[in-house]
Amino acid sequence: MNIHDVLRGGHRKRKRLGRGPGSGTGKTCGKGQKGQKSRSGVSIHPLFEGGRMPLYRRIPKRGFSNAPFKREYTPINLYRLKDFKEGETVSEQTLHERGIISGTDTRVKLLGKGDVSTALKVDVSAVSETARDKICAQGGKIVERGTS
Fold first, then answer.
1. CA–CA separation, 132 vs 100, rounded Å?
2. DSSP E strand boundaries for the chain
3. Stated pTM of the model
């Protein structure tokens, strides 16, 4: 057994261009006849559309978008708070420590799906009306920090 038997199929020969008509890639080297792509050193911009007015110049660019200033919240439902004990504080920090949310810098909005069985002190960015009603019905307290 030789090394060339072990490496069978692992090596492809380099395509030799411009070596006569018998090679299959002679004369024009597989680039066809004339044109921009047949020349040496060609590099066409990916958005180039052959000379017509490109799409990014055809679409109107006016107006204002408020998207960069959008406030995003991580929604947490009430049933996720079942592990909290009576009188405990529910905040972004405690939710992160228990692995309910991934980061401490995220804003949390508490939603009303599920029930709360204990009185909790809730200190999050936003609370929905149904969640507020269910927490207050159990004797809990809500400290809403707003949208800071």
1. 20
2. 73-77, 89-91, 107-111, 121-123, 126-127, 141-142
3. 0.55
